[in-house]
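I am writing to request your help with a piece of structural work I have in hand. I am sending you one protein, given as its amino acid sequence and as whole-number tokens for its backbone shapes. Kindly check, if you would, that the fold set down in the tokens agrees with what the sequence suggests. You will find the record immediately after this paragraph:
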Amino acid sequence: MMKLRDGILGLCVGDALGVPVEFLSRQALQKKPLTDMVGYGTHSQPAGTWSDDSSLVFCLMESAAAFPQIDLYDLAERFVKWLEHGYWTPHGETFDVGIATAAAIGRYKQMCIRPDLAGGTQLQDNGNGSLMRILPLAYVLKEETPEDRLAVVSKVSAITHAHQISIMACVIYLELAIHLIDGLDPETSMRKMRETAAELFKESRPEHKKCFERVLEGDLSLLKQEDVQSSGYVVHTLEASIWSLLTTGSYAEAVLRSVNLGEDTDTTGAVTGGLAGICYGLDAIPENWLQQLARRDEIEELCIRFEQAIG
């Protein structure tokens, strides 16, 4: 499938770039910007180590490859296996697990509830834990109607993040990714995404739509860096990632710009990396970064199985 490896490996590389500097402030990274793939740092992991962001992407890919339609129970069980047994982790153990994600997986397992009822529904539950793992659905649902995509994305997000703000962020990201997969440039992809979002969100609550005003109505490319936030709040991650794509001209520039914003660097890097990988292609990702990726051969093999399964 066109641009599958571009997006998935682009996401994983962006994630791995951000892992060593996660939680560093923007001021610290301005003094000593990240310019290359490095190791250790925040989580004491070797270079090329990706985080929960990529782990959950791979869980979704494995599940989607195993069933003709998304099976929420299978996906939730893979999330449990990841959290408790290190399934699809870079070195056999989980680290840097999001609070909301862990809580939702715990609710699913302990309360035996439907997977799409496990995610948090409060305003404070709008971390970026579903946005970071949603990209594979761009490939799975590309030929579906926007309305059908919305229905599936809502349920997959809700396994860990069920608030409408989280779901809307996932929808915006996927619609943008799909237009990039179709070969459109970022500016045209943004315009088409906005047209679709306007229709999909016309019944959404005004206070929810207002959260995405800068994405859906403004021009993110005109924002100064100091106006872009990079916390774990899903709207911040979405804005920072799109801004990083729109204000740079290559894969490396985009992901390094996003990581050097500081704070939630692995997720901002991953979300940006997925878009930039699709936009610029696999050949644009520095080869020495790809070579250092943990379990790269297995990731490549998973991409092949996923592509064959979804056609």
Observations:
- The chain has a mean pLDDT of 97.
- The chain is about 60% helix and 0% strand.
